[in-house]
Design goal:
Elements lengths: L3 H14 L5 E6 L12 H8 L8 E3 L2 E5 L5 E6 L4 E7 L8 E7 L5 E7 L5 E6 L23 H11 L3 H5 L10 H11 L12 H20 L41 E5 L2 E5 L11
Antiparallel strand pairs: 1-6, 2-3, 3-4, 4-8, 5-7, 6-7, 9-10
Helix pairs in contact: 1-6, 5-6
Length: 285
């Protein structure tokens, strides 16, 4: 599933190509693509007609398109394979095209939602006074948000009484961090994924947050991480950060710090990648 850098890359692409454009027509080609819009595809298309899209926004892994002059927004859930593509109207339809949005202007491009596995979707929601879709109002700020409170995160981390990787993936504590960037930040911090959060000092938390931000900013510079063709920017380009990963996906390869073979362990229906030398497990584990 795309994490913060990948979603931010898509948001920036949308800001360039759809900000300020008015919807002429929306075509829902697969009902699962709007299943989170409980009133159905016909209602979704009807309520978008004639609406102007405002500057796309993001919090963590969540992306939405505010509707100008209203308290509503289109929330985009990319799931495992969702893509928001800006394509020429004359371009052939993608095999897994689910939703098409045409505009009233003469720019000649349209917005397409493509989703091979149909886990993602689009839905229309009311917004909070802060402009967030109401269904994600509980999501914490992400570490690249200027208003993210490092001190409050540290206190919440210690109160949570969990392990550090679970905390990093808890979107109510800190949003946008998924399995890939958690492993990368923990490797940079020399922390084992089962390190109890109750043991964290404020300097240790500050160091960890610094590495989370560093790895996300590095990924943003190269368009995010693409392991296959399912994650792409709005113009269809893939990201290249997978070439710079230090931990994730490197089982058996030498640690870039000490040369010890990297290990992979099953973890919460996922995998955790770590260096057994640099990231020693806590004694309690």
């Amino acid at each position: 599933m795309p994490e913060l850098p990948e979603v931010e890359v898509v948001r920036r692409g949308l800001a360039r190509w759809v900000d300020g454009r008015t919807v002429a027509e929306t075509e829902v080609l697969h009902p699962r693509a709007v299943r989170r819009h409980l009133a159905g595809g016909t209602d979704f298309a009807h309520r978008l007609r004639g609406r102007r899209l405002d500057t796309p926004r993001r919090r963590g892994k969540y992306l939405w398109l505010p509707l100008a002059g209203t308290d509503e927004a289109v929330l985009a859930h990319l799931g495992m394979s969702g893509q928001l593509l800006v394509q020429p109207r004359t371009a052939p339809d993608e095999k897994h095209l689910r939703v098409r949005v045409r505009f009233t202007d003469a720019l000649g491009t349209e917005l397409r939602f493509v989703d091979q596995r149909t886990f993602g979707g689009l839905s229309l929601h009311g917004t909070t006074p802060d402009g967030l879709p109401d269904v994600i109002a509980h999501i914490a700020r992400d570490p690249l948000d200027p208003l993210f409170d490092d001190a409050a995160f540290h206190e919440a981390l210690r109160r949570k009484r969990t392990t550090v990787k679970r905390a990093l993936l808890d979107q109510s504590l800190i949003s946008g961090v998924g399995n890939i960037y958690a492993d990368e930040a923990l490797w940079r911090s020399r922390l084992h994924y089962e390190r109890p959060t109750a043991t964290f000092t404020r300097p240790r938390t500050t160091e960890l947050l610094g590495h989370v931000r560093d790895v996300m900013n590095a990924a943003l510079q190269v368009g995010g991480t693409s392991f296959d063709s399912l994650y792409v920017n709005v113009n269809g380009e893939s990201g290249y950060f997978d070439r710079s990963l230090d931990a994730y996906g490197r089982e058996g390869e030498p640690c870039r710090r000490c040369g010890t073979p990297m290990r992979r362990r099953p973890w919460m229906n996922r995998s955790s990648y770590f260096c057994p030398q640099c990231q020693r497990p806590p004694r309690a584990a």
